[in-house]
Amino acid sequence: MPRNILAVDDSKVMRDMVRIALTGAGFSVREAGDGIEALQRINGDPIDLIITDINMPNMDGLTFVRHVRSKPGYQRTPILILTTEGTDGKKAEGKAAGATGWIVKPFTPEKLLDVVRRVCP
């Protein structure tokens, strides 16, 4: 059974890039355009990994990560931040919110797959 990944980004193009890279490697990908929509998605089928942007309308990625970590059953779910933000301060905020890892855009499909396979074998 394929691992279920939730890709959260307000850019449809970015979600498409993530989906294409991951489905090609055998993962099942669900998508959400912001943190609010993503919270609705995790109330359905189990999610094995979340990949989220930070800068999104309605609910930003760091707020979304905090909400996910407060949900029963999601304290240990790997969460990767995929963003253009790469400063040490932002990374520290992500870690404090509960993020597992950080990938800076632009990314290559190989880099994404490498990180995903490490946190979601």
TrEMBL record:
Alphabetically ordered keywords of this record: Phosphoprotein
A Pfam family the protein falls into: Response_reg
Modified residues (4-aspartylphosphate): 53
Superkingdom of origin: Bacteria
Domain Response regulatory stretches: 4-120
Alphabetical list of Gene3D superfamilies matching this protein: 3.40.50.2300
InterPro entries recorded: Bact_response_regulator, CheY-like_superfamily, Sig_transdc_resp-reg_receiver
Protein name listed in UniProt: Two-component system chemotaxis response regulator CheY
Source organism: Azospirillum picis
Upper taxonomic lineage: Bacteria, Pseudomonadati, Pseudomonadota, Alphaproteobacteria, Rhodospirillales
